[in-house]
Design brief:
By secondary structure, the protein is an alpha+beta fold. It is about 40% helix and about 25% strand. The strands form eight sheets. A six-stranded antiparallel sheet has the order 16-15-14-19-18-17, with helices on both faces. Helix 1 (about 1-50) packs antiparallel against helix 8 and helix 2 (about 65-75) runs antiparallel to helix 21 (about 620-655).
């Protein structure tokens, strides 16, 4: 009896120890789940911000449209709710920034915000998304002056990566959390080294993660009653109301440059409380202990193996949960799966963009040459991966002999790699679609028994889930980036043609569509005009087409009803618009969306058409994208309409001001005017020819600073003034003195002017320049001179009287006057552009028509680029 009792007590003790071990194992598993959930949520924030540099314009700035569009994508794919943009502002630029924003640059102290002291540079908040009373209260706040945020910003700049800050009070809520900082660099600038990144930095996009909210999200992913505490380097960030105790399991997370500690404790299971009840049962069953202990060794090994497999599977699951991109999933498969399955190697194959091949990532255990050879496997080949992908069934090859029989063309490579058995398992999405293939290889023959395949299937299911999530993240990141690209290009669009080209080129990617077009409404003629409609190139060049507002088409209905028209498939089109089905099929479209574009006057200004080659489900995600695209286009179309109005007015003024040159015996004249491609209509550049009382030709070429109506108006006034003075008989030096006095006394504009007088009777040329680019003079013998003499300051400044430069102008001589738009380039000395035109003049033969000479000089000066400033050109030849 004593032996039975002792056996019972011993059995109860064993059960107690086993229960405690189970509790520890359970807590370890939950800790891994908690770590995976925390890593996933923080990693999602990092992935969402990964496309931030795409919103930076060519000059390194970020406009509100681009930030709003990028924010819409970020908020849709993460738990983040607000973004801020901070440019890099030097101390020299501080006053300009404060004047532009209307906000001072400030620091936050114990007493609130106060003007920031003088520093070499600042990172002040300039824009926020969304724009609310709460977020705009941050305008001007310098994150660079904050010890924590400033440190994170400089680390992000130097590392070229998104960084989590040390614990800090979130603004403006003042709850403990982390600032998240993403650096923005100048597009095209090299960023390979720290020095290059420091030189290329233009600003930052920042957000905040509140510790309590982050811990609540983690808690929601864990069993009820789990107690948690989140710390950063010993600082408690957040904890559940029931705090974890001394039995808590600790897990660490390294992300965004920070190392977080997560303490996790679960409720003990009821099994632990039943151990002494087991004692009573064991007293009754003591006689059976001998048989139990006889197999205990084998059972213990089996339990340990199972526990190890469970622990390693949980570890793999935690890593896969944290993976945010397809590349990260492939890395985890290659690095972690072989150890769990006892395999020699593992890889992940995913279809390429055309779905005509699988792209594989191999681990370092496979020979590099062999890995490269099989890194891309075409769908037309026969390999275990391709067969598993195309059939949707797993491929198991148990030994080398079986491999030679099934894949003879590959067997030698497999044998050379020291492999014997292979498994290729398709990875299915929640909708049962095959997303990719996981490949496994062993250096020994394998028995694919039930326990082995159960573990393989578990791993495959985990990888499939992670791959599906990563695909969504990749897609959302691409969506945020493409939307930002669309917003950036639309912000630069000035004309309706610019809008059309931008939508045709960048609209499809932003909507994950295959085709896009935009139409504008002419309410007077009741038509909808499409400049580029059809299956055109990405340049969007096509024949203008117009449709009546009475037509039965989705685009027309969207305009007349001011509501979106969504056609999910061909059947939907056939039911609602049967006459458009043939055209849709000809364009290869199976789904269409028509988005009306409102305007500030309350009328519908146009419509955006988007098309897909396959049927489309208009879910919440695509709905949000379409809404953002429509809003971006509405703002741009409104701006283009204002531009068009001003453009027509300016063109009218231009036609009246750029009058033909007078005919003077013995002189031949050719003129050219090319407006800037980046400004409104005509600027302040002009030319004019005036016949004086003695029969000479007075030529005026000038440039008033600015563009648009104001510049044209100023130019007209100055032109009239100069013409009157020349016609009154004032010599060129006195003309400039008098004009400068009048300009300086009555206006605030400045201008450059070149006045040249051609005396045919004397074969002579006299000229004087007020800050104007020097003209070119070609003698009859072909010698070319850049006339630098007789120069005075710009009109608008005090101009002294200067004797004119006088040159012979005999038959065969050529004179070239121009404005700076012909010869000026960013990053290039003006002399280089002048030399380029002079060289072209020297290469032109004396028998060329003067019109051809003007054309050749224009081509040479612009050198294939679109003019970024207006160009006026006058060529005079003595005949």
């Amino acid at each position: 009896m004593a032996g039975v009792v002792l056996a019972g007590v011993g059995g109860a003790w064993l059960v107690e120890q086993r229960n405690e071990e189970e509790v520890r194992t359970e807590r370890a598993v939950v800790a891994r789940q908690a770590r995976g959930a925390l890593t996933s949520m923080a990693g999602t924030a990092l992935a969402a911000l990964s496309g931030a540099n795409g919103i930076t314009s060519d000059d390194g700035t970020v406009d509100q449209q681009s930030l709003d569009a990028f924010g819409a994508g970020v908020f849709a794919q993460s738990t983040l709710v607000a973004l801020a943009y901070e440019p890099v502002v030097t101390n020299d630029q501080r006053a300009t920034f404060e004047a532009r924003t209307g906000r001072p640059i400030t620091d936050r102290g114990d007493d609130g915000l106060s003007p920031a002291p003088t520093r070499d540079e600042y990172f002040p908040v300039e824009r926020v998304a969304p724009v609310t009373t709460e977020t705009t209260s941050l305008f001007g706040f310098d994150i660079g002056g904050d010890p924590v945020r400033g440190t994170a910003a400089r680390q992000a700049r130097d590392d070229g990566a998104t960084v989590f800050s040390a614990p800090v009070e979130s603004q403006p809520t003042r709850r403990i959390g982390f600032a998240v900082v993403t650096p923005l660099y100048r597009p095209g600038a090299p960023v390979d080294t720290v020095e290059q990144r420091q030189a290329a930095i233009t600003g930052f996009v920042t957000t905040a993660i509140v510790g309590v909210e982050l811990l609540d999200d983690v808690s929601d992913a864990l069993p009820a009653g789990t107690r948690l505490r989140l710390s950063d380097n010993g600082t408690v960030i957040a904890e559940t109301e029931d705090r974890p105790g001394r039995d808590a399991v600790t897990a660490t997370v390294e992300i965004g440059g920070r190392r977080w500690t997560l303490e996790v404790e679960t409720e003990p299971s009821d099994a632990g409380r039943m151990s002494w009840f087991v004692l009573v049962a064991d007293l009754l069953l003591a006689g059976a202990l001998a048989a139990l202990f006889a197999g205990s060794s084998r059972h213990q090994r089996a339990v340990e193996d199972a526990a190890r497999a469970v622990a390693e599977t949980a570890e793999l699951a935690a890593l896969l949960v944290a993976a945010t991109t397809t590349t990260e999933v492939a890395t985890i498969v290659a690095d972690e799966v072989p150890r769990l399955l006892g395999a020699t190697s593992a890889n992940l194959g995913v279809p390429d963009a055309t779905a005509s091949a699988l792209v594989l990532r191999h681990d370092d255990r496979i020979d590099a040459v062999l890995a490269e050879r099989y890194s891309v496997q075409a769908i037309t080949t026969s390999t275990p991966h391709i067969d598993a992908w195309t059939t949707g069934r797993e491929v198991l090859v148990a030994d080398l002999e079986s491999y030679r029989a099934r894949y003879p063309a590959l067997a030698n490579d497999v044998a050379a790699a020291g492999l014997h058995s292979v498994a290729a398992v398709p990875l299915r999405s929640s909708a049962a679609d095959v997303l990719g293939v996981i490949g496994l290889a062993w250096a020994r023959p394998m028995r694919f028994d039930e326990p082995t395949m159960d573990l393989v299937h578990t791993v495959a299911d985990l990888c499939a889930q992670s791959l599906e999530r990563a695909g969504l993240t990749d897609g959302r990141t691409r969506a945020a980036t493409t939307m930002s690209t669309l917003a950036r290009h639309l912000s630069a669009a000035r004309t309706f043609d610019d809008v059309t080209r931008t939508i045709a080129r960048h609209g499809p990617a932003a909507a994950d569509a295959d085709w896009a077009s935009v139409g504008f409404v002419d309410h007077g003629q009741r038509i909808l005009r499409f400049d580029h409609l059809g299956n055109r190139s990405t340049e969007g060049v096509g024949r203008p087409q117009s449709v009546s507002l009475d037509a039965d088409l989705p685009a027309v209905d969207a305009v007349t009803s001011d509501a979106r028209v969504l056609l999910a498939d061909i059947e939907d089109m056939a039911a609602r618009y049967p006459d458009m089905v043939d055209e849709a099929v000809a364009l290869g479209l199976a789904s269409v969306a028509a988005l009306p574009l409102g305007s500030s006057d309350g009328q519908v200004a146009g419509v955006v058409l988007l098309g897909w080659h396959s049927p489309r489900s208009f879910d919440e995600e695509i709905d949000a994208r379409l809404q953002t695209i429509a809003e971006l286009c509405e703002q741009t179309v409104d701006r283009a309409r204002l531009y068009d109005t001003e453009h027509r007015l300016v063109i009218g003024l231009q036609e009246r001001l750029l009058t033909p040159m007078p005919e003077v015996s013995g002189l031949e004249v050719a003129v050219r005017y090319v407006p800037s491609t980046s400004e409104v209509g005509m600027g302040g550049d002009w030319y004019e020819g005036i016949t004086t009382e003695d029969g000479s030709l007075a030529l005026v070429v000038g440039d008033v600073a600015g563009h648009g109506i104001a510049a044209v108006t100023d130019m007209a006034q100055l032109r009239t003034m100069l013409s009157a003075l020349l016609q009154a008989g004032f010599p060129p030096p006195d003309v400039l003195v008098r004009a400068s006095e009048l300009v300086g006394g009555t206006t605030s504009f400045v201008a450059t002017v070149l006045v040249s007088v051609f005396d045919v009777e004397r074969d002579e040329l006299a000229l004087v320049s007020a800050g104007h680019p020097p003209p070119l003079l070609q003698s009859p013998d072909g010698t070319i001179e850049v006339v630098e003499e007789a120069r005075v300051p710009l009109l608008g400044l005090p101009v002294p009287r200067q004797a004119p430069a006088v040159r012979p102008f005999a038959p065969g001589a050529v004179f070239v006057a121009y404005t700076d738009g012909l010869v000026e380039r960013s990053g290039e000395m003006l002399d280089v552009g002048i030399a380029r035109v002079a060289t072209a003049l020297g290469e032109i033969g004396p028998t060329s028509s003067l019109e051809a000479v003007a054309d050749d000089l224009l081509v040479a000066g612009l050198a294939g680029r679109e003019p970024t400033d207006d160009v006026a050109l006058v060529v005079v030849r003595r005949v």
